[in-house]
Amino acid sequence: MGTTKGLGSPIQMNPPPYNRGTSCTAAEGGDQRDTTFVKYGSPFTMDRLFIGLDPTDSGITAIELIENRPVSFVLKVKIHDRDIKLDRLRPTCHRYLANLKEAFVCHESLLFIYERWDGVSLKGIQELRPTFELGEVEVATICCQILHGLHYIHNTLGISHGAISEQNIYIDDNGDVRIGRIGESMIRGLIHGGEAMDISATLKIARKLLGLQGTSGGRGTVGLLAHDFTAAPRGVTIEQLLQSSRRSSSARSKTLPPQGPSVLPDYSDDPDDDTEEDLADVPLDYGRGLKTKRRGERIEQRWHKYCRVKAAEPDTSPKWNDPSKALEEMTPNDVHRFFNYCGKLRWGIDGRRLKGINKASALYAEWKSFQGYYRRVTRQSIRKEDREEINAGLRKLIDKWNLDQDEREKTPVYVQDLTEFNETTLRTQEKRFHVGYERIQLCLFTMLGIFTVNRLQALLSLQFEHLRFSIQRDPLGGPPIPLVEIRSKHVKKYMGTAQHNNFPLPEIIDDPSLIFSPHVFLFGILFWLQAFEASNLTSMEGLRRLLVEKGWQQMELPLKADIAERYIFCMTREVRGEFVIQWNEPMKESTMSGRLKSLGQIHGWLHSFFAHRFRYGGGKMLNKSTVVSEAEQNLIMKHANIRTFLDHYLPRDIDVDMQNIMNGRDQNTALMGAITRISRWIDKRRPRKLDPQQRESLREHPEYLEAVQLRNQQEKAYKKDASSQNLARLRRLQRNLSGTAINDEEAKEVLRTEDQMSPERIDLIESLFSWPTSPSLEEEWKRRNAATRAVSQYCPVPEGGPLRGRPKRSIPSDGFGNESQVSHKRGASKDSQPIVRLSSRELLLREAEEHIRAAEKPQRCFQCFGNRSLPDNRRTQEWTKHKSTLRHFRKKHLDDLKCNFCEEVLLHEMHLRNHAATVHRLIT
C-alpha cells in the first residue's frame, strides 16, 4: 500500500470478447429506432402464443413461445397516472442488457417484450450467503459488465437507468450480466444527476457482494484494492473506472490525482441517498394547494375524454390515440374546440349532472387550469402567439354562450353588521344545533373572521395551540389586560417559507357590547374545557386576580397539552345515539358555509352570506385606515401587491359622497357607510320558504285577512289606552336601568314557554344582551365575568339537533280540543282553587307522560322521556306507528342498564326487554 494505486485495480481486466450477433441484428452502437416499434393494442389478441405467469414472483406477466426462436418475456407497466413520451421508446441491442424487442400500448398500461434471459438475480445470489460467496475477481467481472451496460445506456440511448439494484441485475447461464427493466428507464428518460446515481448504485452493489463494512479493507491485497474501488470519490466516471492496466502511470495520474494510503478518502460511512426515489414520480404540482390539484385533475380527465372522442372519429389524426402526444402537438384550434366541448358537457362522474359554465370568469379559470396541465406534461409554456389566438376564441365562446361577464357581488360586512348577526344567531329558534357549543362556534367564527381577515380554510384549521393567552402590564398603570394572540399557520403557500401573521387582540374594557367580544367567548370555552395548565384557574374572577410580576411585561397562561391539539371549529357526530363533539376533526368548509348562508337568510340579508365577505369589509377598513400602510395591508391579507386587492376585493359600491365633495362641503360619512353595508337590504320579514305563487295567494287567504283585521283593531285599542303606553315606557326604563334586555320575568316566561328555550340559553342571552350601568371598573368586570360564565355553562347544553320539515305550530294554551285540559279546568273550578295556567311546555310534557302510562300501544319512548338531559322535542317525540317506536327502541336503547322513566337499575339486556314489555308495553 506504499505505492500510488489507481482506482479499480480488480476491474482492470479486459472483458472477454463476445459475438454480438448472438442476440442483436444490428451494430451495438447504431441507432435502433423503428417506426413500427410501438404498437397499439394487446399482443395477447394476436396470432401469437403466450403463457401467463404470476407477476408477483418475478415481475414477468407472460412468456412468449415461438417455434425455432428464443423465448420472450412480457412485463406490464401501469401508465394511467404518468405522462409518457412514446418517442423515447426504442429497441435495444447490447450483450449486457435484457434487450427490449417490442412495446405495446394497451388501455392504461405498457407491455414490454424482452428477449429471454436465463439465470438468477444478484439478490438471489446474495441470499445464498454464507453458503456461497463471490470472490473479488467474480465481483470485479460483474461490476465491469454492469459498467459496460451503463455506458451503452448513457451514451447510446441517451438516458439513465435510475433503478440499478440487486433485483434488476441477472447472471445468465453463460455467466454474463443482464441489466433488466430498460423499458421503464426509457419512460423516465434522462434524470438530472441520473448517471452519477447509476454509478453510485453499482458501487453499492459491489460493497454488498463483497460484504465490506465500515473501513474494513477486505481479504489480502486484492481485497484492499476492491475496497479502494468501492470507495471511489464522487464525480468519478465510467471511463475512469474502466481504465486499462496498460495505461501508463503518468496517464493515470492525469485522469485521477494520485492518493496515498494516508490521504485516501473513506466514504464507507456515507448515508443512503435513497436511489429508489425517482423525480419522474414526483408531480410538478407537488406542494400546491388541494383545490389547485383538483382543478388540474378535472381538466386532465376532460382532456383524456376528449381525446377518446376524437380518436373514435373516422379519418382522425393518430395523435388523438395518446393524450400526451395530442397535447404536445395541439394547435389553437384544438384548444378552442376542446373548450367548446367542455362547455356543452352536461353529465360528469357517476352520471352526476354538471353545474355547467355560466360566467366568463369560470371559463377563464378553466383556461388557467389547462395551461398548468400543459406545463406539467410538456415542461414548457404555451407560446405567446397561440395564447393570443386561444384568448380570442374564448371571447368568442363568451358571446356565443351569452355568459355573465359581471364581477361577483362584493358587498362587505363590518363589525356593526356582524354584531346584529350574532344577536340573531343567539336568539333564533329557526336554526337549531345538536349542542350549544355549535352555536357558540358560529359567533366566535364571525369575530375571528373580521378581526384577522383570514380565508375560510385558514380559520377552520385553527387549533388551540395556534392561540396564546397572557395578561399584559398596562403601560398607563392600569390593571393587567388579558391578551389573546392568534397565529395563522394554515395560509396559502407554494414553495419557500410561509409567513405566519400574529394577531394580538387585547381586551377592550370600554367596549359596551359583549356579543362581539372574542375574550368572552374564548375564555368561556376554555373554562368549560378546564384548558389551562394551572388547575385552579377556572373562572374570570380568578384571572382578574392575577398580577404581572415586577420587572416583567407579561404573564403567560399555558394550555394543557391535550387541549392544544384540538380544533376550535370542529364537527359534531352521532356516536351510539348521542351527539359528541369531534375535537380532532376540523369542520368542513361546506358545513360552515351552509350555516352562515342559512343564518344570513334568517337574519334577513338579501345577499348570500359567505366567509369571504370578512375580507371584503376588513380589507376596505384597512385600506381606508390612516395608521395601516400599503405594505402592512398586503402582509395582513397575504397579497403580493395592492393590485390583488383592487382587482378582487375592493367593493364596487363607491362610499364617497361625490355630491357634497363636488359642492365643496364635508361628506356625510355616516350615511354613505350605512348605504354601502350589507345590512342596507335587511328585511327579517322576507319569506324564506314560500315560492312566488304562494306569496301571491297569501294576501287573499282568509286567515291572513283575519289576522290583518285583528292587528288593526289591537292597534286602535292600543292608541286609545294610555295606560298600556305608560306601562311599555316603564318597562323600557326598567330594562335600561338594569342593563339587560330581558330583566322582567314576563319576557323570560315567553322565551321559556313559547320559544321553548332552556334556562341556560335564557341565561346566555340575558348575560350577553346587556350594557354597562356603572362607570366603575369592578362593575364592568362583573358584567363580563357573568357573560363568560354563561358561555361556559351553555357549551355542553344539548339543543336537539336541526329542525326537520316545516316548523310545528305551537300548542293552543286555551285547551281547545284537549279534553284533559278542559276537565282539569272544570275540576279546579269545582274545588274553588285558583286556576294555574300551565305553559305549553308543561302541557306537552304532561300529555307525553300520560300517553306513556296509559296507551295500549305507546307511540312515545319511555327511555327518551325519562332522560331529562335531552331537549323537549326529543323527549316528547311521537311516532306515527307503534312499530316505529319498537324500531327506535331496538336501535337506541338495548344497551341501557337503567329505566330512565322508572329510575330502576337493570342487570342485562334481557332484563331490560322484560321490563319494557311488562311495564311499558313495548314487546321487543
From TrEMBL:
Single annotated GO MF: protein kinase activity
PROSITE patterns from the UniProt entry: ZINC_FINGER_C2H2_1 (PS00028)
InterPro entries assigned to the protein according to its UniProt record, in alphabetical order: DUF3435, Kinase-like_dom_sf, Prot_kinase_dom, Znf_C2H2_type
Listed Low complexity bias regions: 244-253
Compositionally skewed regions (Acidic residues) per UniProt: 267-280
C2H2-type domain: residues covered: 899-920
Pfam families referenced in this protein's UniProt entry, alphabetically: DUF3435 (PF11917), Pkinase (PF00069)
Region (Disordered): 1-26, 242-280, 794-833
PANTHER family: FINGER DOMAIN PROTEIN, PUTATIVE (AFU_ORTHOLOGUE AFUA_6G09300)-RELATED, FLUG DOMAIN PROTEIN
Name the UniProt record assigns to this protein: C2H2-type domain-containing protein
Organism field: Aspergillus arachidicola
